[in-house]
Amino acid sequence: MTNAEHRHLRLLLAHYRELDDPARVAVDAHLLTCADCRLALAAYAEHEALLLRSLPARAISAPGRRPASPTDAASPGCALVSSPGQ
Ligand SMILES: [Zn+2]
Fold it and tell me: Which of 19, 37, 62, 74 could form a disulfide with 24 if both were Cys (CB 3.0 to 4.6 A apart)?
């Protein structure tokens, strides 16, 4: 592992949850051998948890708590109707 590779993987840690599979595999392999990056990832996770706790409760309410509207009750025949020939 070169210093440049370490720096590149370190940058990916900030987006760890959004990484695609090849990038995540590379980061995971690096984490096994690099204590610095394990600490950095833990710090990102802690920071993210703090941010989530600072949000107002209603901003993270469960989708099921949303008031039901008549259009939410999807019934066959009244949903999206595609016109033939398009
Ligand atoms: Zn590293």
Answer: 19
User: What is the distance in A from the centroid of ligand 1 to the CA of 54?
Assistant: 29
pTM above threshold 0.85: no
Reduced to 3 states (helix: H, G, I; strand: E, B; else coil), residue 84 is coil
Please give all residues whose CB falls under 5 A of ion ligand 1, grouped by chain where several chains appear.
Answer: 6, 34, 37
Read off the amino acid at residue 70.
Answer: P
Cα 14 to ligand 1 centroid, rounded to whole Å: 13
Span 34-56, pLDDT tens digits: 999 999 999 999 999 999 999 88
Distance (Å, rounded) from C-alpha 47 to C-alpha 40?
Answer: 10
Q: What is the dihedral of CA 13, 17, 22, 26, to 10 degrees?
A: 30
Domain boundaries along the sequence of the chain: 3-60
